[in-house]
Description:
It is a single chain. The chain is mainly alpha-helical. It has four helices and no strands.
Amino acid sequence: xxxxxxxxxxxxxxxxxxxxxxxxxxxxxxxxxxKQVKSSIENEKIEELKRKTTHGQFCQDLERPSVHKExxxxxxxxxxxxxxxxxxxxxxxxxxxxxxxxxxxx
Length: 106
């Protein structure tokens, strides 16, 4: 119930309903702003990663038409590989690729 200027309740239901609607609207607006800010920060981080030479390569590879993005990310997240092992595998692949390229040019 709302308290009037004179200290007594009055009008109750209409005022409470209006306040509740206003509160819900403000709450929704605040949630939307929070989501927009969070999304903006995430997009900035992604763009920053894309600009990096090494880490950006992964992002660029995901955008290729021959790569299934969802499956690649699911494998990466669920593979159980630790960072060190993943780095070792990538280094081995890079070394093999360089060896194949050098052999192919001779």
